[in-house]
Amino acid sequence: MEGGNQSKSSEFLLLAMSENPEQQRILFWMFLSMYLVTVVGNVLIILAISSDSRLHTPMYFFLANLFFTDLFFVTNTIPKMLVNLQSQNKAITYAGCLTQLYFLVSLVALDNLILAVMAYDRYVAICHPLHYVTAMSPGLCILLLSLGWEFSVLYGLIHTLLMTRVTFCGSRKIHYLFCEKYVLLRLACSNIHINHTVLVATGCFIFLIPLGFLITSCARIVRAILRIPSATGKYKAFSTCASHLAVVSLFYGTLGMVYLQPLQTYSMKDSVATVMYAVVTPMMNPFIYSLRNKDMHGALGRLIQGKAFWKLT
């Protein structure tokens, strides 16, 4: 394959992290197990929140949307990867690759924005509890979520459309789980200066600004908790935001391992970090948020008991 006009009719080869048949079998069962746990965990939490009126609060509203985003995120990437691991044909079409890229970029951005809004929700609940009902009104919650979706859709469209300008030639082997932005840019044989510039500029806006907001909110929350006189009050206040802090740390920690580096140094070793933010984080989120949450335990118990009751009747 030579020349620059063939990229749009070509296929890419999604080889996951190994071309060894035995290792691919191990990877298949490992990722299938993780995918099933992720789907079951996220669906259960979403059903529990939607079916229990006691959880119809801003915090759980955003939490349900976070789990829906994670569910969509893993479904966008893992099923195709599982098929490739079991098949001799590892190909994904150019259009399929760009579609996967669009949803990947959009959903990661949406996850980031939802986490920032959830940090604001916890800040208001802990630092301004008397104004919480008015400050986090249903209308504002829907507005914040709508803005998050709009920014995420726009962010995904920008990078996907810019990727259509890139020409690919030579090897089209992708040693990752999916069509990832940095990987595709590394395969390009055309000028990617515009792509890289826009990537940095938009990334600063949609990731660094919310991250700064998150850090500021967390600092104010910690300061407010330290001012609470009783140890019981401190523990109760901290427990309401500890899960969120854990998810934020996991999300930004794994994402930073992949993207806080020059494009030229991006290599096969980063596939481990990619697995962390693309597979492990969505799988762990339901456990982190429900581990020490009594309200969630109660809602899940009532949901499961309700299912069991309907089966018996």
Would you kindly provide a written description of the structure presented here, covering whatever features stand out?
- By secondary structure, this protein is mostly helical.
- The chain is built from 10 helices and 3 strands.
- The chain is globular, with a radius of gyration of 21 Å.
Helix/strand class:
mainly alpha
Could you name the ranges where pLDDT drops below 50 across 5 or more consecutive residues?
1-9
* Multimer state: single chain
The mean pLDDT is 82
Task: State the strand order across the main sheet.
Answer: 2-1-3
Beta strands, count: 3
**Global Rg:** 21 Å
Strand content of the residues, in percent? under 5%
> Percentage of helical residues?
over 70%
Tally of separate helices: 10
Largest sheet: 3 strands, mixed
Q: Secondary-structure element sequence?
A: EHHEHHHEHHHHH
Q: Tell me, what's the shape?
A: globular
Distance between the termini: 64 Å
Break the fold down into its secondary structure elements and pairings.
Elements: E1 11-14, H1 21-51, H2 58-86, E2 91-93, H3 94-127, H4 132-135, H5 138-163, E3 173-174, H6 181-187, H7 193-226, H8 231-259, H9 271-291, H10 294-312
Parallel strand pairs: 1-3
Antiparallel strand pairs: 1-2
